[in-house]
Amino acid sequence: LPADEVVTTRSVFLQRVRLHSTDLEALQRRVDDHLAGSTPRLEHEYRILLADGTVRWVQSRGQVFRDADGRPLRMAGASVDITERKRADEALQQSEQRYQLAIAGVNQGVWDWDLASDMVFMSARAQELFGRVPGPQLRPRREWIANWDYHAEDRIRIRHVLSAYLRGMTRTFEVEYRMRHASGVWRWYHDRGLALRDAEGRPYRMAGSIEDVTDRKEAEAQRDRL
Questions:
Q1: Reading across the β-sheet that carries 18-19, which strands appear in turn?
Q2: pTM above 0.90, yes or no
Q3: Which of 121, 133, 128, 136 is closest to 206 using CA atoms?
Q4: Most buried residue, 41, 148, 161, 226, by CB count within 10 Å?
Q5: pLDDT, tens digit, 9 for 90 and up, residues 14-49
Q6: 3-state class of 93 per DSSP?
Q7: b/e 18-57 (16+ beta carbons within 10 angstroms → b)
Q8: SS3 216
């Protein structure tokens, strides 16, 4: 829309902005649910069709303000173009299968972390590397952490490496650490990953691989002793 155009009503907005028909119905349901008090806030992603035929993805977040009797008076929020993020997500999904096949024959596991939901995918092979019987592969990150016993000397360093990468201070995430295997012994792991970032550089998704490098670390320690 022209920057100086004033949209006076919601109906005018829906006339001027073409939403994908499927997304329009879903958005209306979410708005109705929020106005009815079923949800604490409105949050939805939808597609809009531009005059030149291109499709853009938009994320809208808002909240209704009510009077003393709970009747909705006004809703305010913000919208942001997330087209590039959606394209990146689609490209990542297409590459995940190729990546899984590429590492199927090596001693590596795969993980995928959605920062917004804090859900983590941990492949069956990754779980096996930690000595666990593979279970559900998608769980809240806190559940995975509850089952991981990092070595006390490595725990703070892991946090610092991850924090520095998420803040954009390093180009890649890569760290080696000790974790107690399900058998009770300490084993060394090499963890690496890359993040997808939005237009402002904020990470919203991160994926990578884990490898058991205990044999290499023990060989290096033996060499150092010699």
A1: 18-19, 42-49, 55-66, 72-81
A2: no
A3: 121
A4: 161
A5: 888 889 888 988 999 999 999 999 999 999 999 999
A6: helix
A7: ebeeebbeebeebbeebeeeeeeebebbbbbeeeeeeeeb
A8: helix
